[in-house]
Write a structure and sequence with these properties.
The structure is a homodimer of 439-residue chains. Helix content of chain A is 20%, strand content 27%. Chain A is built from 12 helices and 26 strands. In chain A, strands 6, 7, 8, 13, 14, 16, 17 and 22 form an 8-stranded mixed sheet that branches. The interface between A and B is large, with 68 and 69 residues.
Chain lengths: 439, 439
């Protein structure tokens, strides 16, 4: 399924002027979903869709009863505090709603007068958690990240033998995921004893890091015991967000054997509030290319369609702002840039693998990609890679250095799709700030 | 907090005769919670409490308005499809409700006529998932299990250096947890290549196992960024259930490095439907004893109160029934027996550790203990231990053997507290059946 249709015409313009500004990120070809409420308010969040610098109130639009059929049913599911109900309806409903929203927001639409009162400037609203996340799974799909991290432990044999066969993943913590703007105290915990057999260290994490990831929101799930086949997998995906998988490297090194990361990751994770649908990303599909020396995946992870168009060209960036840079009114520093297309596994493969054993996914579940590092310098998705395992501090333009994150550091992840002749499709940003430890 | 009070008087008798039968498991001193509906019905589940062979409808009792104060507020939270609301209220509310239920169900209570119409025979009801589980964490607290499993990989050094300092845990899958009576198809997946560098195997799991665990239901949670201190931790626990953490050993061996178990565990987990409160278990508290050669835990995992009474004496049993045994009308075979008191870490330590980094627990979260094997033969909590890594098949009394589970095998886990002069406090059972793989 390419999902390409009239909503992807690059010539489409909206009667919302800001949506037509070059590189604004939320043109009429995007239409990302979020939940929002008036800034400073205490009322329940409800779904909205972005258009330029505005958010359209979908719960209010549902009450206006201007759509029919599947689009109306999809809008009906927006009378809720989260996107879970809309997510659970399935791709035909999301697609029908997108088409009607695109038509209603186009220049010349007869619905302009109906919709105009339902818009708010995004600056005037608070964005919430788009979904109640049932289960959160984090994968490890960047070979470049896995190799860089593996080299620090096993210089001669950085990639484990299963890596090129199994989309490695593990379950993470759903309760501590929050939206952009999250701040959290530096985690406290045990660290490896200074001498073998000694007493472990205990205190605030000294090697706090970020991880640059994308998040995949599951739409329709599957029945326990039934698998999702590769070529049907994308129809189960509602859309993508940006994800910062904050990581306490010193806690991780001591705790993670034999059952994997736990307290090193579960204190906080930060997502972007906007969920960009796979349909909005369709113009940025590309062939899923492997190095010819890499093994052909097992049949359940391989198909002609998946190879032809299973990858997405999504640019990713990491920025850092510190207490000192903000005091100097210096903008955040760009630390690195990478691209989702360089990942070893793709979205459909993650869902097919996750369910091959009968594991049931549910609407609102979140799958993280794992750190999306690219090949070569400047494409590192974590400080651990940028600083070569803590050995080479990163120099910041305003004179500071960072081996790992300091208190009051703010990490800002951004993602967007760009190509000539098509408006920029932004995924927005995930920003989060480290506060001092509570001890 | 010992929580001992008038509800623990061993002389208490109920006007429900079956609750007074010796060893019935649900005497008036127990009062475990579940959610239920009429068998074969499709209506919503609602909370109930067991007394003998009966279940008392707590939603209906709430409507009768016979309690006051905290007990009435707790009953009000039972007008729900799960126990989450009741769990979130906190220990003083659970305790107040327990006290009033104990008084109302005692022989001679003036409320007998009011409550009698609200009873159903447990045989006539269907029991559901007691809570919506937000996050599920599985620990690894039996040193005997960790050593037995570690020996199969590292004969000279079975326990990793972190084991006696860190209560090792990882996040598991919440969506695939179901109550006793669950059946599921044998999982399918990748297995280690027959030769190094070869193509992995793919097909139905050949080394399917059970794991004998207890589950800990979190009641009141904590705010993200705040920890739960050791001596306050038990007040955050609503109660315990039995948990079977089904495990595909061959899938696990190939996938679990470096991030831990994933598809080997997340296809199904089976809990008992009854949640027994810590207050009901109070008479079975015992001192938490360590081998004098083991290190003293770090201060956040250690207190005089925790050492004095942080462990619980709960007997555990594993039974197996097969297609052949059922055809012969032979009862399930007892495979092993162990006890929760032999674990290396206790309940309060698990909560204190889980939150020391600021990770937020929520009402309805489930913590698994990990496989509860005891010291020595006959106390193995998994087939992998009973069969010595698949090398010595277990002989069943009706002539069959088992290295790992076969299709149509039913595993039944039971747990109960027994001591002279006190009625048996049962946790009920978790029964689950393996169906043939779907390929």
């Amino acid at each position: 399924m390419s999902y390409l249709n009239e909503t992807h015409d690059p010539a489409l313009q909206s009667w919302v002027d800001s949506a037509n500004q070059p590189d604004n990120g939320f043109p009429i070809q995007n239409l990302p979903f979020a939940v929002f409420r008036p800034a400073g308010g205490t009322q329940d969040f409800h779904p909205g869709v972005a258009i330029g610098d505005q958010v359209l109130d979908l719960a209010a639009l549902a009450a206006a009863q201007v759509f029919t059929g599947k689009a109306a049913e999809a809008l009906g599911a927006c009378k809720s505090t989260t996107l879970n109900k809309l997510m659970s309806l399935g791709q035909p409903y999301w697609s029908a709603l997108r088409l009607e929203l695109s038509r209603a927001l186009r220049s010349g639409s007869a619905l302009q007068a109906t919709l105009e009162p339902l818009l708010s400037n995004i600056k005037d609203v608070e964005l919430g958690m788009p979904a109640r996340i049932g289960d959160y799974t984090d994968f490890y799909i960047s070979e470049h990240h896995a190799t860089a991290v593996g080299k620090q432990f096993r210089p001669d044999n950085p990639l484990l033998p299963n890596y090129k066969w199994v989309p490695i993943g593990y379950h993470g913590r759903a309760s501590s995921i929050n939206v952009s703007g999250q701040s959290f105290p530096r985690p406290v915990g045990q660290t490896r004893p200074a001498t073998e057999g000694g007493t472990p260290g205990f205190g605030p994490c000294q090697r706090l890091d970020y991880e640059l990831e994308l998040g995949i929101f599951v739409g329709q799930g599957n029945t326990q015991g039934e698998r999702i086949n590769l070529d049907e997998a994308e129809a189960h995906v509602f859309g993508l967000c940006i994800l910062n998988d904050w990581s306490a490297r010193d806690l991780q090194a001591w705790e993670y054997q034999p059952l994997g990361p736990f307290l090193a990751k579960n204190f906080a994770s930060t997502i972007s509030p906007w969920v960009v649908t796979l349909e909005a990303l369709a113009p940025f599909r590309i062939a899923f290319e492997r190095n010819p020396n890499d093994p052909q995946p097992l049949p359940y992870l391989s198909s002609a369609e998946n190879q032809a168009s299973g990858a997405f060209d999504i640019g990713l960036q990491v920025f850092l702002s510190t207490q000192a840079s903000r005091a100097q009114q210096t903008g955040p520093a760009l630390l690195s840039e990478s691209n989702f297309k360089d990942a070893y596994w793709n979205i459909a493969q993650l869902l097919a693998h996750h369910t091959v054993n009968g594991c049931n996914l549910q609407a609102g579940d979140l799958l993280g990609t794992g750190t999306l590092s690219g090949p070569g310098k400047g494409k590192e998705g974590s400080l651990l890679e940028l600083n070569n395992g803590g050995k080479q501090p990163v120099k910041l333009p305003w004179g500071e250095e960072r081996s790992f994150l300091q208190d009051h550091d703010e990490v800002i992840l951004r993602a967007a799709c760009r190509k000539p002749g098509y408006p920029t499709i932004s995924l927005g940003q995930s920003a989060g700030t480290v506060l001092p430890a509570k001890i």
